């Protein structure tokens, strides 16, 4: 099956994850998709195929060389982001010759290079787009399609030598739970790569340190006609807290290695208001400082309004750089593979998280490689067919390099 046809088939599965269910996988559609992939892998004749009750699918393409070669893993996630619906995705392929692409004429939804200038890098290529009413799902079904297509390529070319290749598709990456039930020992790879990046050439082994913070404000409701010196409006106190966060240390004002505080939820009444933040920083010391600052601001609020504010902070994941640096050859292999595939490596920090971060801390070093998706998590998502092909070639080249250097 052609790579693009495989991808067009995959995006029609609704696998949007949901952090509110407290289940693994968090939504039934992910298991439906995993079961279909299991059938596909069986039909291809792969070995060691397993799909557990949590929706983790693993399989092996056995070695075809007499050498002792490290076992390499490739990983992608089944779910799409909760940010926008993944139900009823209607993908189509357009030959992009520049300018605007009308996604939905009736609703006036247009993919415009003035808004998304990266489109200019894909002139002359074939873009897979949506009808503007859903996300596309290239994050990360492009990664899944690329991995399986690379396996199919090796099967069609037995003359190309490789060691054992392990592949895994996991649920719930988009809600930060993708690696929680990942059995690293069972996977059995010496190292792995997540195929979950965006722009062609992206190669990432640094990510944010991450925490979630819930700030709760307890008020006192009294009839507004008799409220003087009695009422404590928790909404107003929460607003006062929010403006104490430095306005320049938010996502819309930061880039590169700069961290931030991001207010992602506000729910309140006079009696009780909850602010939800995510805290991010590449530097561990600054990360710890940011968490202390939130606690400090809570104390400031309580000095004016005693016992009003409480702060609950929970670490989510850490920067995988400290786990990758001792095995930097795995990054160098990926760089060399990209160059062999005629892709210019772009080594940069992830301004976000990846399953590879948690897996690295669980003992499986796991940098992140581009899958090609652009404008992910929304209606303007698209992916270049040629970019997906380059990602697939990168997988093939990695395996060839590791075998040759064994």
- Along the chain, the helix and strand elements come as HHEEEEEEEHEHEEEHEEHEHHEHEEEH
Distance, first to last CA: 31 Å
Amount of beta strand: 15-25%
| Spatial strand sequence of the major β-sheet | 1-2-8-3-9-16-10-15
Taking all residues together, what is the mean pLDDT?
96
Commentary on this structure:
The protein is α+β, with helices and mostly antiparallel strands and 406 residues long. The protein is built from 10 helices and 18 strands. The protein has an 8-stranded mixed sheet, with helices on one face. The protein has a 4-stranded antiparallel sheet with strand order 4-7-18-17. Helix 1 runs antiparallel to helix 3, helix 3 crosses helix 10 (385-405) and helix 8 packs across helix 10 (385-405). The longest helix is centred in the C-terminal third of the chain and has 21 residues, at 284-304. The radius of gyration is 23 Å and the shape is globular. The two termini are 31 Å apart. The mean pLDDT is 96.
Concise summary:
With 406 residues, the protein is α+β, with helices and mostly antiparallel strands.
Characteristic terms for this protein:
eight-stranded mixed β-sheet, 10 helices, 18 strands, 30% helix, 406 residues, four-stranded antiparallel β-sheet, alpha+beta
Q: How do the helices and strands line up, and which of them pair or pack?
A:
Layout: H1 3-10, H2 28-44, E1 47-51, E2 57-61, E3 72-77, E4 92-95, E5 101-104, E6 109-111, E7 126-129, H3 138-156, E8 165-170, H4 184-187, E9 191-197, E10 202-204, E11 209-218, H5 234-242, E12 260-268, E13 272-281, H6 284-304, E14 309-317, H7 321-324, H8 329-340, E15 346-347, H9 355-361, E16 368-370, E17 373-374, E18 382-384, H10 385-405
Parallel strand pairs: 3-8, 3-9, 9-16, 10-15
Antiparallel strand pairs: 1-2, 2-8, 4-7, 5-6, 7-18, 10-16, 11-13, 11-14, 12-13, 17-18
Helix pairs in contact: 1-3, 3-10, 8-10
């Amino acid at each position: 099956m052609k790579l693009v046809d495989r991808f067009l088939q995959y995006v029609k599965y609704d696998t949007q994850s949901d952090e509110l269910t407290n289940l693994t996988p968090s939504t039934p559609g992910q298991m439906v998709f995993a079961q279909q992939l299991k059938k596909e892998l069986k039909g291809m004749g792969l070995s060691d195929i397993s799909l557990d009750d949590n929706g983790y699918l693993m399989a092996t393409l056995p070695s075809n060389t007499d050498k002792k070669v490290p076992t390499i893993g490739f990983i992608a996630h089944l779910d799409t982001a909760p940010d926008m619906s993944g139900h009823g995705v209607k993908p189509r392929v357009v030959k992009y010759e520049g300018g605007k692409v009308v996604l939905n004429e009736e609703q006036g939804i247009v993919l415009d290079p003035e808004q998304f200038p990266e489109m200019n890098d894909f002139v002359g290529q074939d873009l897979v787009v949506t009808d503007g009413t859903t996300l596309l799902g290239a994050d990360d079904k492009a990664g899944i399609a690329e991995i399986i297509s690379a396996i199919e390529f090796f099967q069609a070319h037995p003359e190309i030598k490789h060691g054992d290749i392990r592949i895994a598709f996991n649920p719930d990456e988009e809600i930060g739970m993708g690696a929680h039930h990942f059995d690293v020992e069972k996977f059995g790879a010496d190292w792995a790569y997540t195929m979950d990046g965006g722009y062609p050439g992206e190669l990432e082994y640094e990510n944010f340190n991450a925490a979630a913070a819930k700030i709760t404000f307890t008020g006192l409701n009294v009839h507004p006609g008799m409220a003087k010196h009695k009422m404590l409006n928790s909404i107003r106190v929460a607003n006062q807290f929010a403006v104490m966060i430095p306005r320049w240390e938010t996502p819309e004002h930061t880039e590169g290695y700069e961290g931030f505080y991001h207010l992602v939820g506000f729910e309140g009444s006079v009696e009780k208001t909850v602010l939800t933040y995510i805290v991010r920083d590449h530097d561990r010391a600054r990360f710890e400082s940011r968490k202390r600052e939130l606690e400090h601001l809570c104390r400031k609020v309580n000095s004016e309004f005693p016992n009003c504010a409480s702060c609950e902070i929970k670490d989510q994941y850490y920067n995988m750089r400290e786990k990758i640096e001792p095995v930097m050859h795995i990054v160098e292999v990926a760089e060399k593979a990209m160059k062999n595939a005629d892709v210019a490596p772009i080594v940069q920090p992830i301004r976000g998280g990846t399953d590879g971060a948690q897996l690295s801390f669980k003992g499986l070093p796991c940098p992140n490689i581009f899958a090609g998706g652009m404008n992910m998590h929304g209606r303007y998502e698209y992916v270049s067919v040629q970019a997906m092909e380059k990602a697939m070639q990168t997988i093939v080249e990695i395996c060839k390099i590791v075998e040759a250097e064994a």
